[in-house]
Q: What sequence folds into this?
């Protein structure tokens, strides 16, 4: 199996309420699960192929909870990537060259009945985990933005995070609110719903702690 590692930042937005029941092994707020997520790779490799400075994204949806399957995923990969880099990023995002169910990519892919052919797009990710802000775009495919939750009484920013010491996506995140949109095979529009920022630090064996 090929050794690989990614280190960077993730911004994701799903259709659930701010707390996202999935993070607590509960059912989705509205019964289904839809999400758009962006991934910035600061440093990474897939075997001998360097992945530094690349980005990827996906739009993904399930008719029920994730673990019930029947999902559809639209991978989106930076058009700046070479052919080898594109193959590497798609392999990681679809759970290839990964220990069984070791990463959230592998779990999500396993719960999809259809993974659409990847789109190649100019991807920009401007995200600040500490500030809980994000502006992300995959030209012609998807976009997302995030901001802090606001206290409805005081109008001040409300800071909250989730700790998952044994999580397959992160160990701790920052939670905010997000707006996202995707077009094509997995189209959706999300408005003022759960958003998260987290460190992206994975290998084929799972989260690097």
A:
């Amino acid at each position: 199996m090929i050794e690989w590692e990614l280190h960077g930042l993730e911004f994701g937005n799903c259709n659930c309420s701010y707390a996202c029941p999935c993070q607590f092994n509960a059912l989705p707020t509205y019964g289904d699960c839809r999400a758009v997520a962006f991934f910035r790779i600061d440093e990474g490799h897939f075997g001998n192929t360097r992945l530094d400075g690349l980005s990827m994204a996906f739009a993904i949806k399930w008719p029920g909870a994730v673990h019930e399957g029947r999902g559809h995923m639209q991978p989106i990969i930076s058009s700046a990537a070479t052919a080898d880099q594109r193959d590497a990023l798609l392999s990681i995002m679809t759970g290839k060259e990964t220990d069984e169910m070791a990463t959230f990519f592998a779990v999500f892919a396993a719960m999809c009945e259809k993974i659409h052919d990847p789109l190649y797009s100019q991807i920009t990710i401007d995200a600040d985990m500490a500030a809980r802000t994000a502006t992300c775009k995959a030209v012609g495919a998807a976009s997302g933005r995030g901001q802090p939750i606001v206290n409805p009484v005081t109008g001040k920013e409300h800071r909250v995070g989730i700790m998952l010491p044994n999580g397959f996506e992160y160990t701790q995140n920052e939670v905010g609110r997000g707006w996202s949109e995707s077009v094509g095979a997995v189209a959706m529009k999300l408005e003022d719903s759960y958003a998260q920022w987290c460190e992206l630090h994975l290998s084929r064996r799972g989260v690097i702690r």
In short: The chain has a mean pLDDT of 97. The first helix runs from residue 83 to 93. The chain is about 10% helix and 50% strand. Residues 4-200 form one domain.
